[in-house]
Design a protein that fits this description.
The chain is of the alpha+beta class. It has three domains: 110 residues, no CATH class; 100 residues, Immunoglobulin-like (Sandwich); 88 residues, no CATH class. It contains five helices and 15 strands. The strands form three sheets. Strands 9, 10, 11, 12, 13, 14 and 15 form a seven-stranded mixed sheet that branches. A four-stranded antiparallel sheet has the order 1-8-7-6, with no helix packed on it. Strands 2-3-4-5 form a four-stranded antiparallel sheet, covered by helices on one side. Strand 6 and strand 7 form a beta hairpin. The protein is elongated, with a radius of gyration of 28 Å.
Length: 313
């Protein structure tokens, strides 16, 4: 007796019975095939889902499909899909549907779960006695629930300190916050968001308000004396960072060029001191870009250094 059909049916039944509970999240179709054959695949992102076997009834019609799921070329899972039904995989990130079997052709589609995400932006205007930054956060893609807003500041003085807030839910394309911050000094303002999708999966986003802000021209102008003073402050912070912050050679070279500093001899210090100097340099770069009329080339170099500092935190 050939045991292969019996074994296949046993495996198929096991896979169908172990299919996860359907997600309530919205979906977006990412791939469709109106005539998929054995050995062919659906692909999206890191995933390849290959049709590896089929189940037929006594009339020879196909009523179920078996797929092998690969992530980055490595087998991750095996799933079965009944005709007219769907099966989720990859922790609910994807859903495969056996749409129909007609004229001896298998139709199926692959869908990706829509994950809620906030689109955050900030704009800063320099005024006479303080800076004004407007922060906007808009929910894109899908609904979010149990949303919490937290603000963290370091090295800046706020005239109107924002408070942490909670929201039960927010619909797609809804505006979460449109906050205006009045601040002075140099440092950082971090907006942190935690939230869940409709299935209860947790997510978080962190946004460096001042580092990512678009700075608008005000026409106020900055006096030559103020520019000179800011250059001195920045040069001192840059020299300390080049000495103690374990920066890349590219960053050291760019800082020496911008500040017109001679040769620097880096000194190895403990991680705590190193991180302090990195944070000081980050704050100094952000502050200096508000007052010092850098060239476009210098701005690009400073942004590259900020990127390095952010990646090394």
């Amino acid at each position: 007796m050939d045991l292969k059909p019996v074994l296949f049916l046993a495996v198929l039944s096991s896979l169908l019975l172990s299919s996860p509970v359907a997600s309530a999240a919205p979906w977006s179709q990412v791939s469709y095939n109106s005539n998929i054959n054995l050995g062919e695949s659906f692909t999206h992102g890191d995933y390849t889902i290959t049709l590896t076997d089929i189940a037929r009834n006594w009339d020879g019609d196909i009523y179920a499909l078996m797929f092998t799921v690969y992530k980055n070329g490595i087998e991750e899972d095996r799933i079965a899909v009944n005709l007219g039904q769907s099966t989720e995989f990859a922790d609910g990130k994807y859903k495969l549907t056996f749409s129909k079997y007609q004229f001896k052709k298998i139709s199926g589609r692959l869908e990706a779960a829509l994950i809620p995400n906030f689109e955050i932006s900030s704009t800063t205007t320099q005024l006479k006695d303080y800076n004004k930054t407007t922060v906007c956060a808009k929910l894109t893609t899908a609904e979010a629930e149990n949303i919490k807003i937290t603000w963290k500041t370091s090295g800046v003085e706020l005239q109107n300190k924002p408070t942490s807030k909670r929201y039960e839910s927010l619909s797609k394309d809804g505006n979460l916050t449109n906050s205006t911050l009045k601040w002075s000094g140099s440092g950082s303002i971090i907006l942190e968001l935690t939230y869940q999708d409709v299935d209860g999966k947790k997510y978080n986003q962190s946004y460096n308000v001042l580092q990512n802000s678009v700075y608008e021209e005000t026409g106020l102008g900055v006096s030559p004396g103020r520019i000179s003073a800011e250059k001195t402050v920045f040069k001192n912070a840059a020299f300390r960072a080049m000495t103690y912050a374990n920066l890349s050679q590219a960053s050291i070279s760019d800082l020496r060029s911008i500040t017109q500093t001679g040769k620097v001899s880096p000194i190895t210090v403990n991680k705590y001191r190193e991180n302090i100097e990195k944070k000081r340099l980050e704050a100094a770069i952000i502050r200096s870009m508000n007052y010092i009329p850098y060239s476009e080339s210098e701005k690009a170099k400073l942004n590259n250094i900020l990127h390095e500092l952010g990646g090394n935190q």
